[in-house]
Amino acid sequence: xxxxxxxxxxxxxxxxxxxxxxxxxxxxxxxxxxxxxxxxxxxxxxxxxxxxxxxxxxxxxxxxxxxxxxxxxxxxxxxxxxxxxxxxxxxxxxxxxxxxxxxxxxxxxxxxxxxxxxxxxxxxxxxxxxxxxxxxxxxxxxxxxxxxxxxxxxxxxxxxxxxxxxxxxxxxxxxxxxxxxxxxxxxxxxxxxxxxxxxxxxxxxxxxxxxxxxxxxxxxxxxxxxxxxxxxxxxxxxxxxxxxxxxxxxxxxxxxxxxxxxxxxxxxxxxxxxxxxxxxxxxxxxxxxxxxx
Length: 293
Fold this sequence. Notes:
This protein is α+β, with helices and mostly antiparallel strands. It has helices at 20-25, 95-98, 104-122, 197-209, 259-266, 280-292, and strands at 31-36, 39-43, 46-47, 59-65, 71-77, 91-93, 133-136, 141-144, 150-151, 156-164, 170-176, 187-190, 213-224, 229-238, 251-258. 22% of the residues lie in helices and 31% in strands. The mean pLDDT is 90.
């Protein structure tokens, strides 16, 4: 897995400009990504960029500049808006629906739009005093009208780990209780207060699968807006393979998979289901499989 530079210019230089959203909304060259209920309008596997006119009852924010230099705004629309259902060739899809069907630029834009729209929708009040807030920095901060505190979109760090055997020929995956045993994936969990990422990895893996780790290396990360996570991916090697045991609550089963079994599952031929192509979990599994395939 290699480092990927950002595909989107977030245009931070425009955020402090007074009245920038109003100016950009009236500019005919500005394009808008509409998000409703964590979904965006899509046509031919491309996020639909529309004109600002005619979008009512939305909360606005600056997303950045597209590859062609066009400024992109976010319109976070309420779930109930019949005016947004007028075009028969448009469909509303979310990140899991789109999976690997869009390129890296569209994917980065999609994640940013859903994450910011969620914050705009869910955090209208000051968490300190409960007062109302006003949007600032082109939708990227809020200032409380009562106590004057500034608030910003939250990002919660979480680790996700591909755990391999000591000889590197088997991968340990777990079945989450929420999936009913139908799918196996990498182990993941949120970082707790005062905890490093490395400490989170060791704690979560031992809690969920019973094993301790002898090696740990960083792989890559992925923003995941459900609701506001940053998934930080690692590869780890177990200390004692026979210690693997599901916690019986969050993880109902753990299982060692051979490289051949992982290859078959990636092809959709069993023996189990794996995460979809939109997730870093699948990327970690695929990276491990292709290393020696």
